[in-house]
Design a protein that fits this description.
Blueprint: H1 14-19, H2 30-43, H3 56-63, H4 67-79, E1 83-86, E2 90-93, H5 100-117, H6 122-132
Helix pairs in contact: 2-4, 2-5, 3-4
Length: about 140
């Protein structure tokens, strides 16, 4: 059919865009904001196991960030076994997304974000963790 797009851009739910707002003024890199935002939604079961995530391009356009930003967030979530990416089928929340390991990763990410926001680097953050874990 002439004049009609074969693959219209999929829409991203408004609630998801609102939940994943990327703050340009943040010291946290945009990909990390997207990654931690998705992790939070997964752990709060707003994105339950089996939920299909928007395409990289659609989410990037909706958030006003580059596709590379969203691709990196998705890649890191996949490496942590939180999501599974399947060619031509998309990215979905993985079965093991609720594992203790993924919850610990989310907590560590949140801790690192707080440390960065307060102006502390990795060395200071690790020193604080060492202080609360007895040798």
């Amino acid at each position: 059919m002439a004049g009609q797009a074969k693959n219209p851009t999929p829409t991203v739910p408004t609630w998801l865009v609102t939940a994943l707002t990327v703050k340009a003024t943040s010291t946290v890199p945009p990909y990390e904001q997207v990654r931690t935002g998705l992790l939070d939604l997964i752990h709060r079961n707003r994105l339950p196991v089996g939920s299909k995530l928007p395409t990289v391009r659609a989410l990037a356009a909706a958030l006003g960030v580059s596709a590379n930003t969203v691709a990196r967030a998705y890649k890191e979530l996949e490496q942590a076994s939180v999501v599974t990416a399947r060619p031509r089928l998309g990215t979905v929340v993985a079965q093991g997304a609720d594992s203790a390991e993924s919850q610990l990763a989310a907590a560590a990410t949140a801790y690192a974000e707080v440390a960065r926001t307060l102006g502390f680097g990795r060395r200071d953050a690790v020193r604080q963790l060492d202080a609360v874990f007895p040798a």
